[in-house]
Amino acid sequence: MPDTLEGQIVQDADRLDAIGAIGIARAFSYGGTRGRPLWEPEGQPRENMTAAEYYARQGDTIAHFHEKLLLVKGMMNTAEGKRLAEMRDQYMRAYLTEFAAEWDGIR
Question: Cys staple from 49: which of 41, 53, 60, 84, with CB 3.0 to 4.6 Å?
Answer without folding.
Answer: 53
